[in-house]
Amino acid sequence: MAENGGGGGCCPPMDLMRSEPMQLVQLIVPMESAHLTVSYLGDLGLVQFKDLNSEKSPFQRTYAAQIKRCGEMARKIRFFKDQMSKAGVLPKEMLGKENDIDLDDVEVKLGELEAELVEINANNDKLQRSYNELMEYKLVLEKAGEFFSSAHRSATAQQRETESPRASEDLLESPLLQEEKSIDASKQVKLGFLTGLVPREKSMVFERILFRATRGNVYVRQTVVEETVIDPNSGEKAEKNVFVVFYSGERAKSKILKICEAFGANRYPFSEDLRKQAQMITEVSGRLTELKTTIDAGLGHRNILLQTIGDKFELWSLKVRKEKAIYHTLNMLSLDVTKKCLVAEGWSPVFASKEIQKALERAAVDSNSQVGSIFQILRTKELPPTYFRTNKFTSAIQEIVDAYGVAKYQEANPGVFTIVTFPFLFAVMFGDWGHGICLLLATMYLIVREKKLASQKLGDIMEMAFGGRYVIMMMSLFSIYTGLIYNEFFSIPYPLFAPSAYDCRDASCSEATTIGLIKVRDTYPFGLDPVWHGTRSELPFLNSLKMKMSILLGVSQMNLGIIMSYFNARFFKSSVNVWFQFIPQMIFLNSLFGYLSVLIIIKWCTGSQADLYHVMIYMFLSPTDELGENQLFPHQKTVQLVLLFLALVSVPCMLLPKPFILKKQHEARHQGQSYAPLEETDESLHVETSGGSHGHEEFEFSEIFVHQLIHTIEFVLGAVSNTASYLRLWALSLAHSELSSVFYEKVLLLAWGYNNWLILIVGIIVFVFATVGVLLVMETLSAFLHALRLHWVEFQNKFYEGDGYKFAPFSFILTASEDE
Amino acid sequence: MYGFEALTFNIHGGYLEAIVRGHRAGLLTTADYNNLCQCENLDDIKMHLSATKYGSYLQNEPSPLHTTTIVEKCTLKLVDDYKHMLCQATEPMSTFLEYIRYGHMIDNVVLIVTGTLHERDVQELIEKCHPLGMFDSIATLAVAQNMRELYRLVLVDTPLAPYFSECLTSEDLDDMNIEIMRNTLYKAYLEDFYKFCQKLGGATAEIMSDLLAFEADRRAVNITINSIGTELTREDRKKLYSNFGFLYPYGHEELAICEDIDQVRGVMEKYPPYQAIFSKMSYGESQMLDKAFYEEEVRRLCLAFEQQFHYAVFFAYMRLREQEIRNLMWISECVAQNQKSRIHDSVVYMF
């Protein structure tokens, strides 16, 4: 299969089984066509460039200047994006192709637009600033005017009752003014005052500092401005207070001015004269409306500009990102000594050679280059990257495998089998066709609206569910299947295929017992007979069934894993691994647990009462004892002795020969090298290159031996523990069915029993939420994780090395989708 | 308490310690500095920094860059880191973090007061202030005429208030006074910080007392060198030394009477931690002293990261970042003024 895989032959090629054959290619590209070449290769997306300048820092590379240019353009584009999102302008869908536009044009255009936008913004800011100032001024006029007029009223009221005792001193209404009025007019000192706005959160400190600085010889009044005010300096919304400060003396004034400045309090002139005030207010209002129209016109102009930017925005942004990616790639190429051409090295799949050559030719023609590019394949000992051609269905499964480790180059890919085994093992733990249908509906929604959802930005969890939609679909289909076998539908028994085969012998037999049931029809055709449901012996029966089934599934999957190791050994032509790894492992596993599986099947077929625990345990403890009533087939004792012997023998077979053979092989190779006659040089070179990378490696026998020892111990112990680990299939499936029956019986049926519609509705709601939250979400997650573990650990440790690295081609499709 | 931090430290401090160690991993390495030294212009520096943690802070700067922009953006990153940590911190770590910024507050107060004295614009001065040392009414400092007013008007509301107890005079402010005020404040601050760390106990106290003692000694040496040849009397000079550190108390007695740099050297060479610093310098030279001290400080700060479950890592990280910003400023200045040969004069490598 492995050999035939690539070349057709008896079976069709199996792309997913092994990595695409890869090659290290060298491209020698003339300077003038380099840019176009890389651009075409990026469209192709099948070459992974190697960084040949890794020792150079980013700004010492050939195209550092161009990258800087692109960075600058990207900055402008970010600036536009920011401005557009602030103005609420959405970029239009892409029109035309970005190949048609020239980068230099874009740069000039971007520069012009930025300058224009900045200028408009500056003008607008200026206008907005004066507008805001006027707004503040207006507020000051209103609020302070109110204050002055109220103070005036109370002062005149005060004067009218001068004779009355000074009880009104308690009145908080402007004590200073009141005093001023009551004092003899000749002694009146002219008080100065300042008005303005101060940010509310600073108002307390402001007042305090004013008080301290003037030693209390100041009177401050503040009024809260209810609506938020836009601060002219910062342009941000702020809550502010209008203040009026009364002071006496020039020194106090200069201090207050300084403090105002320090607190960012904007001062505005204010006149005591009421007439002047009214005049000011009308003047300010007039100017406000004037400014408003100007600002609106400016904004309209700006919006038009942004709209024109928005038309081309996506196009430019894509172009700039592409150019940046191209120059980054060009920087990875090394400059030829003559400085006339660039040398690129990179990995590409073998099948892509033609396409790459075609792209090179096309680039040479399109750029009017006098010489074409040279494409040649290099021989290398480096391990190539692993590349599987996946589609939207297989990619999610491949992701699951890759999350454990990317396959070594051309190693057998467990992903092939995982496509089926993963959803199947999941479904064994999640067997309920009702839940399966719910899951299927949910995932079908994702699949049907695939195109729309793929272009959207989804949340973290949604993204994950969307990425794995086909896996989830498989999982739900399989769980419908296993659910039918388990005969579970929200834990309600459903005689779906035929009526139950059993019925009561007479009217007295109760439902909850199997005693008294007689077989009246043919055996239930598919899955579990619904009559088991709710009987007293339901659990013992299901446990026994599911436990045995788990062991059968586990043993077969582990066998599959070992067989995969055989394919690997065949593929890499290592007969040592076949004889001293694959065969003893097969013998060991199957003589113990394979035998157990056979016993299980025999027991099922014959209906024997034999105790399998007993058989297995005493097979080790006293293999020579008679089996007695536990005998399942004739000559069982002899068979067991032989199997035990085989298992014991296979352990040293796994451990000892391989290191010694490797040592011998190494010595033979070493000798051949040191004494090779001159004429054989070619051949030895050939052997070396084909022999892989370990030709030059130091051979450390003790290390190899210890490694083999660990491997053997791991396998022998693992055979037991991994088989036990598959019992999780049973445990989770049990937990799932028990949980769903609890929700059904203790919630839904209980609520039904009250005969009260209110309780029934509450019960249904609780049932729905419990089913969705616990069974559909949490149980799915836990079954998923357990299935994942069974694949990663129990299955893949039999053969999978997973120490390769992924093929990461230079492709514009990836550049376009990645976010800035 | 010592030895048991491991039990309880992570309840409140674990997350932040992880954060700060992550930040520390983002500090520029010698390889980065080597690359930076090869830059031809400021755009190259920006390009190199875009691959570091500063990337997102510099990416939106339009192209003709200035040194000040680079420094400003790098400082912004430090401030953001600090604010994030402060938000997450609980007592007593939040107090510890607050202490870190008092030093900047003192510097800012002095900056504003000196600036006003020389009749600079307040707004311009405020832009020059270190953002970590800002407080609400900082601009009001310009109103004050003398120390007492300064205190009564503004500083009484700030955490610096207690440090003023020693320098309340009614003399008018002048350069000399301000410098004395700065050092008195610093002395009080360091002593207070030292006491606070001792109160915290454990590894924090151990490591911080070492770091603070070094800081105090460095200040003592600087005060001595700067006051040689001024009218500051010996007693006044001695009053400015912090009352702890490796030099306290006998070293202070000797430093107080030093009359030239070689005498300082004689005093310092008696103390093993400083012997190495001074032995590197030739006689009569004091320019290289700053760099030598910085290098020693960086070495000690890096050592703070060797131990776990203590607060000194926060102090160390902030200081290292500040040093890094100083380095970047120097490199950018050198690159901008085409003095690349002088880059190595003042850059302190960390790792």
TrEMBL record, chain A:
Q: Where are the transmembrane segments?
A: 424-448, 469-486, 549-567, 579-602, 638-656, 757-778
Species classification: Eukaryota, Viridiplantae, Streptophyta, Embryophyta, Tracheophyta
List the GO terms this entry assigns under cellular component, sorted alphabetically: vacuolar proton-transporting V-type ATPase complex; vacuolar proton-transporting V-type ATPase, V0 domain
Instruction: List the InterPro entries hit by this protein, alphabetically.
Output: V-ATPase_116kDa_su, V-type_ATPase_116kDa_su_euka
Q: Which family does it belong to?
A: Belongs to the V-ATPase 116 kDa subunit family.
Pfam families according to UniProt: V_ATPase_I (PF01496)
**Lipid bilayer topology:** Multi-pass membrane protein
Which residues does UniProt call coiled coil?
103-137
Q: Tell me the GO BP annotations in alphabetical order.
A: vacuolar acidification
Q: Name one GO molecular function term.
A: ATPase binding
**What's the protein name?**
V-type proton ATPase subunit a
Q: Which gene encodes it?
A: BnaC03g60340D
> What functional role does this protein have?
Essential component of the vacuolar proton pump (V-ATPase), a multimeric enzyme that catalyzes the translocation of protons across the membranes. Required for assembly and activity of the V-ATPase.
Q: Give the subcellular location.
A: Membrane
Q: Which domain of life is it from?
A: Eukaryota
Q: Could you tell me the keywords of this UniProt record?
A: Coiled coil, Hydrogen ion transport, Ion transport, Membrane, Transmembrane, Transmembrane helix, Transport
Q: What is its main location?
A: membrane
